């Protein structure tokens, strides 16, 4: 059975390979100080970014998810954005991704958020197969301006 618990400082060595594999999946790299800052903020129990890690029966880390709440003009209590979701290849198809999303939905609901949402690449058919089962497509298109 999969267990999911909040990421803490003690999970650093298990989190890092999953985070690196997630970046590789997106053909991306990040400077080490960005990764260090990201983990520090996730592991800070009073921080704004939250994270959870999934472990299999043997305690092996098989998935991670990160999220944060933000204010919204259309809601008094705001929304929750799920920024990163990754399940290790050998553990895929067994419900870990679904369980991680459900974990975030529970946490966001408990924190009073009105909505949980996330983005994915149009071409990410595997992720979309899961998302189409657990969520509604918003119909919005994502735009951005790189400010660097
Ligand atoms: C997307 C991802 C997180 C899904 O994790 P997962 O643990 O395999 O997902 P689940 O096992 O919970 O899948 C849930 C549902 O999606 C379906 N599904 C999963 N992979 C599928 C695939 N390759 N093709 C069709 N359906 C699939 C499952 O059948 C399951 O449906 P069911 O519960 O009704 O049977 C995982 O594939 C992953 O980490 N991919 C690489 C990183 C990524 O794309 N992250 C998301 C970025 S937005």
Topology at a glance:
Elements: E1 3-6, H1 12-25, H2 32-43, E2 49-55, E3 61-72, E4 75-87, H3 96-110, E5 115-117, H4 125-134
Parallel strand pairs: 4-5
Antiparallel strand pairs: 1-2, 2-3, 3-4
Bound molecules: coenzyme A.
List keywords for this structure.
about 150 residues, alpha+beta, Aminopeptidase, 5-stranded mixed beta sheet, 4 helices, about 35% helix, about 25% strand, globular, binds coenzyme A
In short:
The chain is α+β, with helices and mostly antiparallel strands. Helix content is 34%, strand content 26%.
What would you say this structure looks like, in words?
The protein has 148 residues and is of the alpha+beta class. It has one domain (3-134): Gcn5-related N-acetyltransferase (GNAT) (Aminopeptidase). Helix content is 34%, strand content 26%. A five-stranded mixed beta sheet has the order 1-2-3-4-5, sandwiched between helices. Strand 4 (75-87), helix 3 and strand 5 form a beta-alpha-beta unit. The longest helix is centred in the last third of the chain and has 15 residues, at 96-110. It is globular and about 45 Å long. The mean pLDDT is 97. Bound molecules: coenzyme A. Coenzyme A binds at residues 25, 85-87, 92-98, 120, 124, 126-127, 129-130, 133.
């Amino acid at each position: 059975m999969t267990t999911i618990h909040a990421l803490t400082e003690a999970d650093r060595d298990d989190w890092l390979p999953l985070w690196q594999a997630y970046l590789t999946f997106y053909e991306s790299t990040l400077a080490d100080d960005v990764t260090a800052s990201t983990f520090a903020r996730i592991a800070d129990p009073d921080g704004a970014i939250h994270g959870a890690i999934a472990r299999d029966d043997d305690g092996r880390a098989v998935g991670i998810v990160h999220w944060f709440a933000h204010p919204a003009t259309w809601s008094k209590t705001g929304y929750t954005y799920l920024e990163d979701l990754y399940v290790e290849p050998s553990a895929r198809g067994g419900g870990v991704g679904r369980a991680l999303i459900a974990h975030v939905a529970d946490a966001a609901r408990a924190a009073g958020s009105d909505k949980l949402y996330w983005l994915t690449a149009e071409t990410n058919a595997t992720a979309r197969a899961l998302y189409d089962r657990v969520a509604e497509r918003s119909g919005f298109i994502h735009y951005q301006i790189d400010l660097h």
